[in-house]
């Protein structure tokens, strides 16, 4: 929800921000970082300020240590009935109002994915697209000090050093940027999540409050490639994870649009398939020939998506960006967010409380 901003003098704003930061530090010193996150969010809804946004990034990373790591379900995957017994050859679809734990879990376990129409409403998705494009603008112009004020750049792009990861080129390319490297975007994306039933549905399915991560939470812009391999993220996320990925398009993509959607197997695969053979380009990918050999008769589908639509899936879903000739393609903008059960969190990633 977008709260109305409060009109205050600059001096009063300074006082409010200073008080909010002091209160958050106080709560953190008592081991109450989740409460500190909540209190910072409340103030930032009224006063968007880089110091609050930066503090929220740090506090969300630190708050991960306070999450309950007890497995929410004794058995994984759970046994759930198929909510879409008549659907085959295409992913099941629901409007956002029908997204709940049983629908999500049943769809993933029986069909491999679930398309959620209008997960974000039109105002929210337009606002998020503007934020995503602003973050990429800050990334693209980082070598030009005149392109953006220092404060604006700090809000929209600053390499996070609080997650323990070594500086790398990840997030410095033209196509992908970590959300965590944009404090203002972290705020906007989490607000967008909380405007929808997404986190509640994932929490109910996992049986525990999910967390995000530093390196599997990204914004992407793509024109597609004429050809690419397929992959399952389970090929590199590690074993024993419980996860749901929310891929949210902020662009009309696929169908009769000129932007690439996501191309995917519209059924549940039994596990992570062997990678790297049959002419695959990488040791973690699967070629079309390899897929046809391992899953005879499989046909890929490309759902047409509109701004605010989401495709939800997990580590077993075989997919790629829709193949397109980049020269004649439009940009597709999307947010990809892998939610993990804290009890089975991939060790290589720093967790983020949401
Ligand atoms: Fe992927």
Helix/strand order: HHHEHEHHEHHEEHEEHEEEE
Distance between the termini: 16 Å
Q: Identify the overall geometry.
A: globular
The CATH superfamily name is q2cbj1_9rhob like domain
Residue share in helix: 25-40%
How would you briefly describe this protein structure?
By secondary structure, the protein is an alpha+beta fold. The protein has ten helices and eleven strands. The longest helix is centred in the N-terminal third of the chain and has 20 residues, at 10-29.
Structure characterization notes:
With 354 residues, the chain is of the alpha+beta class. It has a single domain, classed as Jelly Rolls, CATH 2.60.120.620. Helices cover 33% and strands 14% of the residues. Strand 1 (93-95), helix 4 and strand 2 form a beta-alpha-beta unit. Helix 1 (10-29) packs antiparallel against helix 2, helix 4 crosses helix 8 and helix 5 runs antiparallel to helix 7. The radius of gyration is 20 Å and the shape is globular. The mean pLDDT is 93. The chain binds fe (ii) ion. Fe (ii) ion is lined by residues 231, 233, 319.
């Amino acid at each position: 929800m977008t709260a109305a901003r409060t009109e205050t003098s600059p001096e009063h704003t300074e006082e409010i921000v200073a008080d909010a930061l002091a209160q958050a530090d106080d709560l953190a010193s008592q081991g109450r970082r989740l409460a500190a996150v909540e209190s910072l969010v409340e103030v930032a809804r009224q006063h968007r300020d880089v110091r609050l946004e930066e503090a929220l990034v740090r506090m969300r990373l630190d708050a991960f240590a306070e999450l309950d790591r007890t497995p929410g379900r004794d058995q994984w995957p759970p046994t759930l009935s198929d909510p879409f017994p008549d659907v085959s050859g295409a992913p099941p679809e629901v409007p956002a109002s029908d997204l709940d734990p049983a629908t999500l879990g049943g769809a993933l376990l029986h069909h491999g994915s679930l398309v959620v129409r209008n997960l974000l409403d039109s105002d929210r998705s337009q606002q998020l697209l503007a934020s995503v494009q602003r973050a990429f603008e800050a990334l693209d112009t980082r070598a030009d000090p005149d392109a953006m004020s220092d404060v604006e750049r700090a809000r929209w792009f600053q390499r996070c050093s609080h997650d323990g990861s070594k500086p790398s080129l990840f997030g410095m390319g033209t196509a992908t940027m970590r959300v965590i490297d944009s404090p203002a975007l972290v705020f906007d994306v989490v607000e967008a999540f909380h405007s929808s039933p997404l986190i509640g549905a994932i929490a109910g399915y996992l049986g525990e409050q999910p967390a995000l991560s530093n390196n599997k939470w990204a914004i992407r812009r793509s024109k597609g490639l004429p050809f690419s391999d397929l992959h399952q993220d389970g090929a590199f996320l590690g074993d024993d994870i419980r996860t749901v990925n929310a891929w949210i398009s902020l662009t009309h993509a696929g169908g009769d649009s000129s932007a690439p959607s996501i191309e995917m197997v519209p059924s549940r695969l039994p596990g992570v398939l062997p990678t790297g053979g049959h002419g695959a380009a990488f040791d973690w990918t699967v070629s079309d020939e390899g897929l046809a050999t391992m899953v005879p008769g499989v046909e890929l589908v490309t759902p047409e998506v509109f701004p605010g639509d989401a495709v939800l899936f997990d580590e077993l879903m075989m997919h790629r960006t829709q193949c397109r000739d980049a020269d004649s393609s439009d940009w597709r903008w999307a947010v990809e967010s892998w939610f993990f059960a804290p009890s089975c969190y991939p060790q290589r990633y720093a967790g983020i409380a949401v």
